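User: Can you recover a sequence for this backbone? Please restate the input before giving your answer.

Assistant: Of course. Working from this structure:
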């Protein structure tokens, strides 16, 4: 998007990262969105944003009813919207430079394996949920890098869902909205994702990470000490197997839980399996299912320990848990890849780095690093250079603060 430079809100650091660009105020972006909307569609619009996320720890645990600790990042997907009198949905993406149209008559809507599926899927779920949706004109634009494992899709779903509900004047229940957007992705898009990404887009809190129990949806905020920062390193690769392998991992977890449940009362998901259960029933599982289960069981424990570590401001302990999480995702869950491992290895050897791990679904995307504020400059300059030397790829680096959840943003002007 022209008037607002992509990524400034997320403090995208270009190589060499000598200067972190100034953050663009949300009200300024909203103003730009409203102007662009007026130029394309005519008339005023309301503007909304929903954040992407980085997960500090608790990977591939959400769909096992387990625990996660994401934080909303200060890069958002933006939607400018005005309702129409007919039932046409006209959506223009400034990010990809495409427009599409759909008619909300409930019969002709089917997935196209296209970014628009995230928008139409949400509209379909809202209609199924009883919302009387008229048509709408929408302009969307995202600061969240696509395919980087920072949850650009959930940010799009949640911003569109929130914008439509608010525009038609329906009360918004944030838990229900998160579930609805997850359903849109499970059913319409066909990715069997858990609730983490949609939940944090609906419940993120500025300056805090969120601990979430994905079964009860109980959550609490956790503050990082002020002398550390979260730095996200984008490997710039996304291996094509990611989507298929994600659904395979989920099926493997369900198969492991079902096998364990046969001899262990009270097991409904891997969340219910203790390390002792695993020792006992491990020999009954195939080696692959055993390793998948072991990742989930140990990762859930790590999330609980990580929350305790943050409560006592123990960043060293927290960082060690992040490193163990990465090893488990690499060795037991097999969702890492060479580029992620290289990035984590380089980061882990740098001074002032408490912990480093892959974040998100895996097979590429980003790593998350907990770095002492005093070590940030060295970190930024060294990691880009060493990663490029090892892989031939220039990474993007983002220093991110924790951001608020989805909201309407009133333009400055
Ligand atoms: C993706 C999914 C989430 C979660 C993570 C892995 O981001 O959308 O639901 O399963 O992968 O932790």
């Amino acid at each position: 998007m022209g008037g607002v430079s992509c990524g400034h809100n997320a403090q995208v650091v270009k190589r060499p990262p000598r200067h972190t660009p100034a953050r663009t105020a949300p009200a300024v972006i909203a103003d730009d969105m409203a102007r662009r909307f007026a130029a394309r569609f005519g008339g005023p619009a309301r503007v909304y944003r929903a954040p992407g996320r980085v997960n500090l720890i608790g990977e591939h645990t959400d769909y096992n009813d387990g625990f996660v600790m994401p934080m909303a990042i200060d890069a958002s997907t933006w939607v400018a919207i005005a309702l129409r009198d007919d039932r046409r949905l006209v959506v223009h993406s400034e990010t990809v430079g495409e427009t599409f149209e759909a008619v909300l008559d409930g019969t002709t809507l089917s997935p196209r394996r296209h970014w628009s599926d995230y928008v139409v899927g949400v509209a379909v779920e809202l209609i199924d949920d009883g919302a009387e949706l008229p048509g709408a004109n929408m302009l969307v634009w995202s600061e969240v890098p696509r395919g980087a494992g920072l949850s650009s899709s959930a940010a799009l779903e949640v911003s569109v869902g929130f914008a439509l509900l608010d525009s038609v004047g329906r009360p918004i229940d944030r838990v229900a909205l998160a579930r609805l957007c997850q359903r849109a992705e499970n059913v319409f898009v066909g990715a069997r994702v858990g609730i983490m990404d949609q939940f944090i887009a609906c419940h993120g809190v500025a300056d805090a990470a969120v601990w979430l129990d994905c079964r009860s949806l109980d959550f609490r905020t956790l503050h990082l000490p002020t002398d550390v920062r979260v730095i996200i390193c984008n490997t710039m690769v996304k291996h094509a197997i990611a989507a298929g392998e994600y659904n395979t991992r989920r099926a493997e977890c369900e198969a492991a839980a079902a096998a364990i449940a046969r001899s262990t009362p009270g097991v409904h998901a891997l969340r219910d399996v203790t390390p002792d259960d695993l020792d006992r029933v491990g020999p009954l599982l195939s080696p692959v299912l055993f390793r998948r289960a072991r990742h989930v069981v140990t990762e859930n424990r790590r999330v609980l320990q990580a929350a305790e570590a943050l409560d006592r401001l123990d960043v060293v302990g927290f960082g060690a848990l992040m490193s163990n999480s990465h090893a488990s995702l690499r060795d037991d869950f097999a969702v890492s890849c060479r580029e992620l491992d290289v990035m984590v290895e380089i980061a882990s050897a740098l001074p002032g780095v408490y912990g480093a791990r892959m974040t998100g679904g895996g097979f590429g995307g980003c790593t998350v690093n907990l770095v002492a504020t005093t070590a940030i400059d060295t970190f930024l300059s060294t990691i880009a250079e060493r990663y490029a030397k090892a892989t031939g790829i220039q990474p993007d680096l983002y220093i991110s603060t924790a951001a608020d959840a989805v909201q309407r943003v009133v333009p400055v002007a």
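That completes the design. The radius of gyration is 21 Å.
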